[in-house]
Structure prediction request, 335 residues.
Amino acid sequence: MLTWLVVLLLCAPGHASLPLVINTWAFRDAAAAAWRALQAGGGVLDAVEIGCARCEAEQCDGSVGFGGSPDETGETTLDAMIMNGNTMEVGAVADLRKVKNAIGVARAVMERTDHTLLVGESATAFAESMGFIPEDLTTNKSMNIFTQWLKGNCQPNYRKNVIPDPSKYCGPYKPTATPEPSRRPRLTNIHSHDTIGMIAVGEDGQVAAGTSTNGANHKVPGRVGDSPIAGAGAYADRSAGGAAATGDGDIMMRFLPSYLAVELMRAGADPSTACAMAISRIKRHYPQFFGAVICANTTGHYGAACNKRPGFSRFHYMVSDSHTDPPLLKSVDCF
Ligand SMILES: *[C@@H]1O[C@H](CO)[C@@H](O)[C@H](O)[C@H]1NC(C)=O
Ligand SMILES: *[C@@H]1O[C@H](CO)[C@@H](O)[C@H](O)[C@H]1NC(C)=O
Prediction:
């Protein structure tokens, strides 16, 4: 009886141990790669970069890296960021084209420029100058998704207040005379919005966070989601903790949920509560939004929260610490 109680206490969610890596979704290989990087003596930035890069190379569930989420023209473009919670430096790329290792380029932006965010073809040119190899990000799979979408009259899509009627026809579109509040339900297939978000906390309490994604399926070309935006996709501050978000970035980026969660932890909220409060803030305005947040504080306590909606009642994330070898799949019930 007592033994069970002890086991229960030790295994309770959020049981703390440093170092710690947590990441969104059941992306096991990414978690393992990040953990190995720490074990091999790498720092928290290395862990986040290597973990997210693993997802980019393996395409995880198709929502990260090349060959996924083709835009309206069929091209895959990538968003990524990395943040050093020690120095508050951030490097990010958005609408990155023709380079697979988006988080690597993000880290180069942080370490080899004084900037924070580079975008589009110019980010590609920067990446090439830093030695990244330009490649076609299109695969048979992404080409197939794209051609099926074209055959299906470009449904679903993200257009509104345009002619021809975007709920029936492909573009090119022109604006209608008077924009009206949209009555179309938002495109909310949860697999069109996944992202790897990762937080690493070192033995000494250093914190880094990062993200990588290929964005939303059938997005309007040029669309950038929450992932490369500091405070939205991820945030890290070694005096408080780290957080990362996944879900409908178009909505989530308006609320800076990662920043909010870190500030709540700074104010004393435990990580699960901080995550839940960040979700609640968005829920107030968009009760049906799709999204989840992961949180970790500097003593290695962690938690997660998600918004319950049809088709999404439980969110999975990975935890790697000294108690979990290999990394452990955890889940939280959405509310
Ligand atoms: C992709 O499609 C082309 C032509 O349809 C085919 O030759 C090639 O083997 C395919 N590649 C893969 C990886 O399936
Ligand atoms: C992290 O969260 C846990 C759980 O709420 C709390 O006990 C701990 O004091 C927090 N650590 C810091 C540094 O605030």
